[in-house]
Amino acid sequence: MSEVGGRRPPPDAGVSIEGDQAAAWSPEALARQTLDRLPPWLRRPLGRLLEGWLGRIGINTAESCVRIEIFDRSMTIAAQFFTSVFPILILFASWVGDVRTDTIAEALDMPEESRSMLDQAVQASASTGFGVVGVLIVLASATSLSRALTRAYAAIWWLPRPRSSLRSAWRWLAVVVALALSLFVVRALSQFASDVPPGNVWERVVAFACDLVIMMFVPWLLLSGAVRLRLLAPAALLFAALMLVVRPASQVWLPHALDASAERYGSIGVAFTYLAWLYVVAFCVLLTAVLGQVVADDRGWLGTQLRGRDGAHPTPVGAGAG
Asked: Is residue 166 a part of any domain in this protein?
């Protein structure tokens, strides 16, 4: 693995590396091989660019994305979010009488054809009651999202593969409940802020602040504080800034895509559309987390300031993930 701006992974990080073969196919090695084939007049400026801060960040980010298998993990997290958060939303709606299905549908931009199915699901759960066993099953299955996120963050920060234990159950449950509630909180606060002129500005400020808090809280709690909050700040800032573009785009695309999918394919089309949207969000989460880790672990001025005066690496070798 490349040591540009970073360090080699700890021996127990759960990363399989085959020595010279892996190093030969790393983004840095491929960049070096490409530079060697270029003429000298072009090789020198590009070499200086790669040695600079932007070059190091770009190469190490690409290397980390390949290492953690970002595309596969994004799909896993999107599917886990779909199967974990939606049942909790139905559970909340059946428990709390003030929470109407229209509130959930608006938070999810759900089309009219799918709202009737949501009404039936909530009414059925309210009439029959989840029961203690049903609630425990829903909550236990919902924690699969937290476990998938824990494994992803542990891989990003070079931590050992986390072991599942009952001591971590409350962290998993707290994260998945917080993510479910954030759908309502962000929407409610954004609508409230939009009434304060200038509405568009305050709406984006509130959404930015909510995304920032959530993306610092989730990895910090899942990793049991193994990574300091100041080191998680770059990833959270990048995600919140990226969502300033992704959220308005999704508000335009998602309702039309859901309506078209519901009209053509019914509920299964709505489900696949939600999965596609969740995949984009999950990819943004992992990409910004990788970029934030690379920035915090870089040998440059910014990385050194984030790590503190001693310049210690963000995650010590052998640190546990809880």
From this structure: yes
